[in-house]
Amino acid sequence: MGDIRVGILGIGSMGRHHVRNARSTKGFDLVALADPDGDKFGVAGDLAVLPDVDALIAEGVDAAIVAVPTVFHEEAALKLAEAGVHALVEKPLSFSVESGERIAKAFSDAGLIGAVGYVERCNPALLEMRERIRGGQLGEVYQIITRRQSPFPARIADVGVVKDLATHDVDLAAWVAGSTYETVYAQTAYRSGREHEDMMAASGRFANGVLVNHLVNWLSPYKDRTTIVTGERGALVADTAMGDLTFYENGSFPVEWDQIANFRGVSEGEVTRYALAKREPLAVEHEHFRDAILGVSNEHVSMDEGLTTLRVLEAILESAKTGESVRL
C-alpha cells in the first residue's frame, strides 16, 4: 500500500508535537489538520486548519491522531470508528470507564487499530529497563516506585493530576511488572484552589505480588520523572525526563559492620549507568501506530490496555474519596 494518509485533530500544546513527528514518520503522509481554535503555534504550514473531526474525515484520511481535551475524546473517536479510520487517542482513553468502553468497543467491532498515547512506554530508559527485567537482571522483582512531580501546566483544564499525570505511571508500572493491579489505596489533595486534585499518593499490589507506589503532584518547583524497580539482585532507576537508566547492584561482599548490616539488609555493589540510543519517544510511538496499521507489529498501547488503566485511575479516585482500599 502507499503512505498512510494521516490527519491530526487538535494542534495545541500536545498536538503540535504530533504534527512535527507525523511529518517525519516514514510511511505517513500528513494530509489534514483540524482544531476549532486554529493554529495557535503556527505548525500547519501549507495545510488548511479545518474546524472539526467531520471535516478531517472528509479529507479521506486513513488514520487520525486525537489530541483534543479528554472530555472530547469519545465524540471524536466514535466518529472516526464509524468512518473506518484508525486512531491514536492521547491518554487517557476517555474521561470515564463507561465512555472508554464505548470507544474500545467501536474500534474492535469495526476491526480498526485503536491505540492510546502512553508515550512513556517509548521512553528509551523504560524500554531498556523492561528488557533487562525480562532478561532476569534483577531476579525476582519486589517493588516498583514512580515519582512524577512538576509545576502546574497551564494546558490542563478538564482533569486532575490523577488522570493527566498518574495515568502514565499506572500504565508503565503494570507494563514493566507484566501484571495487573490487584489492590490500590490512595489519597489526594486540593492545594491550588482548582476543581480537580493536584496531589496524589497511591500504593498497591499487582496480581503477581509486586508492590507498587506512586507519588504525583503539580506543586513541585522542579520536574521529577523517576521510576525505581527493586528486585533480589539490585535496583534499576530510570530518569525518564533525561532518558537515563542506572543499575545499582547488590554487593557481593558481606558487610562486616554489624550495625550497618542489620540496618541495610544488603550491601552496596557496583553502580552502572547505561549508554542508550535516545530517540524522541513520540517518534517511536508514531512508528508503533504505523506498524500496527500495517499489521507488522503490535507494540502500540491498545484501547483495551487503555481501558484497564482507566479502571485503575477510577479506583484510585474512589479510594481517595472513601478512604478505603479498592480491589480490582
UniProtKB/TrEMBL annotation:
<dbReference type="InterPro" id="IPR000683">
    <property type="entry name" value="Gfo/Idh/MocA-like_OxRdtase_N"/>
</dbReference>
<dbReference type="GO" id="GO:0000166">
    <property type="term" value="F:nucleotide binding"/>
</dbReference>
<feature type="domain" description="GFO/IDH/MocA-like oxidoreductase">
    <location>
        <begin position="127"/>
        <end position="236"/>
    </location>
</feature>
<protein>
    <submittedName>
        <fullName>Dehydrogenase</fullName>
    </submittedName>
</protein>
<feature type="domain" description="Gfo/Idh/MocA-like oxidoreductase N-terminal">
    <location>
        <begin position="4"/>
        <end position="118"/>
    </location>
</feature>
<dbReference type="InterPro" id="IPR055170">
    <property type="entry name" value="GFO_IDH_MocA-like_dom"/>
</dbReference>
<dbReference type="Pfam" id="PF22725">
    <property type="entry name" value="GFO_IDH_MocA_C3"/>
</dbReference>
<dbReference type="InterPro" id="IPR051450">
    <property type="entry name" value="Gfo/Idh/MocA_Oxidoreductases"/>
</dbReference>
<dbReference type="Pfam" id="PF01408">
    <property type="entry name" value="GFO_IDH_MocA"/>
</dbReference>
<dbReference type="InterPro" id="IPR036291">
    <property type="entry name" value="NAD(P)-bd_dom_sf"/>
</dbReference>
